[in-house]
Structure formats: C-alpha cells, structure tokens
Design goal:
There is one protein chain. This protein is an alpha+beta fold. 36% of the residues lie in helices and 15% in strands. Strands 1-2-3 form a three-stranded mixed β-sheet.
Amino acid sequence: MKVERITSRIGGRVTGIDASKPLDARTIAALRDALSRHEVLFFADQPMLSGEQQRDFAAQFGENEIPPKLTRES
C-alpha cells in the first residue's frame, strides 16, 4: 500500500489495496493513520464495488451508520 499527499493541506491518494476484499489489521491501522494525517483519502484503481462490498469495506473501520432516509420503508 502507498499513500501519496495530494495537496499541501489535505488529501491522500491510496494505491496498492483492493477495497473489494477484507484487509489485514496492519493495513487497516495504516489507513487509519493516513486518514488522521491527510483528513481525506481517495482510493485509486478500484474495481466497481457492490453495495455489500462498500458496506463491508466501511465496517472494517467501525460501525456503519445508515442514513435515516435509506432505512425508511417505502
């Protein structure tokens, strides 16, 4: 995994991971550190993720919060 600074103030470009697959603890810790330093992370060269894959990727960093609009029954 590599994280490159995008601007002098904010943003990091992450390469070398596949967000569609589970990450190991070391990678998660490195991404948390990068987020702390860069405030925003952009994940380059990713495959199209399904809704479930996006949910699973986010869940590796903490509990997912679903916006109320998406939880209401139609």
